[in-house]
Amino acid sequence: MSLLETLIEDFHSKLNETRHNVLRDFSFPKTEKMIKVAVGMRRSGKTYFLYQHIHQLLKQKIPLEAILYLNFEDDRLLPMNQKTMAELIESFYSLYPENHHRQCYLLLDEVQNIEEWQLVVRRFFDTKNIQIYITGSSAKLLSKEIATSLRGRSISIEIWPYNFHEYLLAHSVEISKKPAGKKTLDILGKHFSDFLQTGGFPAVQELPENIHRETLQNYVETVVFRDVIERYRVTNIAFLKYLTHTLLKNFSSIFSLNKFYNDVKSQGYQIAKDTIYNYLSYLEDTYLIATVPIFTESFRQSQVNPRKIYVVDNGLIQANIFTQSDNVGRLFENQIYLDLRRQGKKIFYYKTKSGYEIDFITEESNGKREIIQATWDLSDIKTREREERALAEAEQELHIKGKIIDRNSYINDFLMR
Q1: Most C-beta atoms within 10 A of its C-beta, which of 195, 372, 380, 396?
Q2: Could you report the per-residue pLDDT of 5-28, keeping only the tens digit for each?
Q3: What's the rounded Cα separation, in Å, for the pair 39 and 204?
Q4: Domain limits for position 185
Q5: Residues of 245-263 as b/e, b for ≥16 C-beta within 10 angstroms?
Q6: Model-level pTM?
Q7: Rounded to 5 degrees, what are φ and ψ at 232?
Q8: Do residues 170 and 147 both lie within one domain?
Q9: Cβ neighbours of residue 269 closer than 8 Å, sequence gap 6 or more
């Protein structure tokens, strides 16, 4: 049996195993004339999202023999170059000659592991009757390669760990969408608190606590070594690890790179400021962390002001920095960021003239803007007054309408969707 036949046999077996996986709240854009690209952090569910799409193709009566899935994290395919990648795909057509005369479907998982992959993809897309789907864990590498070789031919989506809805599905929690009483709200509130602790990485949902924590710690280690150190040939590994841990600790907080640079210099680290910028950029590229700029009409002010740090998953934060229960407000804010990011909105933070920090200014593709304050608990009268005062001041300064989201309004909004 050839390698390709072995890979196809394994693919068919895995396809059967994934038949009842959690249905993700993502879908590829419905356009036949574009290469579809899905990017996101390792282990966030990109592979199973591809399998989900394959199941949808089969429901449309697409022959299984017309579908080829290749995972370029599979050691049997490595090392591989542009030439051998093309030969492998050509052999798919040799194995099933009827594919020359019908539309085929090519799904390439973690394709950034192959140098010059985009040249192979472009040739097949231009010369064959084929739909191509790509995943990768490097936003910048993919975008750079797409910009040079696939410009105008591709469209991208981002894949994130489970949101609250997907988390409930994964834990077989059935919630009626009818008007909810206190019992339903209390039950959902408990599940949401658990969600903020467990996080949304699919593979860890049913793991015992100690293995759950160790697995999420390994996720960070893998990202740092495989997606940063190996990919960018980083040599100052100790400092990169220190920076990663510092960023994780500063989730939902403003992070001043200048202050951090001065701090590490005083600790004896020999590191250039540009190197720190680069390392931060590499970590953001992996989707482990995200940085949010201040909202301002001045491009220069946007660049020189500190950014806020958010992390791809709350469970990952908990496993790696052991947050205390009093951090629930920051975890809630981090989740609101992730929800907004999934909605495809541009996100900023803001400081009012009197110094109030506004968590989010969002901007949609049509230019519509909104102010959002995220507060876990508004039952304390002083907290409510402070948040309302900050919101009112921001609305007056920016002439943008806003709202406050707390735990209760979050749950109620979830039930209304």
Answers
A1: 195
A2: 999 999 999 999 998 899 999 999
A3: 20
A4: 165-416
A5: eebbbbbbebbeeeebbee
A6: 0.94
A7: -110, 5
A8: no
A9: 239, 242
